[in-house]
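Most newcomers find our protein records easier to grasp once they have seen one. Nothing more is needed to start thinking about how sequence determines fold. Here is such a record, shown just as it appears in the course material:
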Amino acid sequence: MTAIADVAKGERSKMLPAKQERIERSRVMIRWWLYFVCALILAMVVVGGATRLTESGLSITEWKPIHGVIPPLSEVEWEEELEKYRQIPEYQLINKGMSLDEFKFIFWWEWGHRLLGRFIGVAFFIPMVAFWATGRVEPWLKPKLLIGLALGGLQGFVGWWMVASGLVDRVDVSQYRLSTHLTLALVIFAYLFWIARRLALLPVPETTEPGSLRGLGIIVLALVFVQIFLGGLVAGLNAGLTFNTWPLMDGQLVPDGLLVMQPAWLNFFENVLTVQFQHRVTAYILVVFGALLAFSTFKVSNRKQLRRSGAHVGAFILLQAVFGILTLIWHVPLSTALIHQGFAVIVLASCVDYLAVMKGAYLIRT
């Protein structure tokens, strides 16, 4: 019996490296798939920004998850779409008399935005099923991927919920819903990027950094999410088109009129002056905390990879602030504004990467 047990133990020890190697190969494929989905989300954020800046978001007045893939194919169908658009306040109060060619311009932006959203869903769902069916998804990873799928479905509903707010009694979408839509997109990005980074061959830390360093990383990440939400409010209220000077705002460091609305809390969401001011102030706070994170990491940690990640966070936040200033003082040109919006995703990725490197790779369970 002992001899048989020894043989079985030897066979099992031979199997473990083979199983671990297969898990590692599977992780490489899943990681790069998740990176690809994250890249698509980044593109979606940029296209969504262009849709907002070109005032195209309300050009399609119906939500057709399946049939909406096919655009108008004849002049008659184009006229039908334009007639639907003529029924909403944006056309009647702002774009009355718009030609068919002008309508096609805004239609294609919104159609492209929705098509990209559908493509992201397919690019996530089909590979997930394939990996799952071939046994490449580890048991602990399965619920995490299902959560990602559910978040993607929720984002589709939130997108239509946002558009619907501008079809009646308004000439644009609600800034509250726009900010929610943008923030949820980046929550999904951060969630998938976190999984992908920890599927990489990140070394498990030999020594544990002080909890204060991890806490600082979490604070910076939270501030980035707050700033993203505030950026959505700025976009929703077109607040970037006003007070286009820096560092002074309306000729002052702290402008008058920040709390003119009643109740006072309303100013932080609907007062154009206050919304832009709080976006500026949060940017300053982020620059300080980003620099503090980079400095503290170099001072406390001996890990080169973590130091590099900390430097990325500090540098990217500073560069993003520069993009924001240029977008403002140049009166929101489309190209600069899209760089500013897209680079916010890069800043977010650097913060997630920092925490992932600090944590190390997921353990392989054989």
In short: Residues 56 and 263 are 32 Å apart (CA to CA). The chain has two domains: 13-201, 205-366. DSSP finds eleven helices and no strands in the chain.
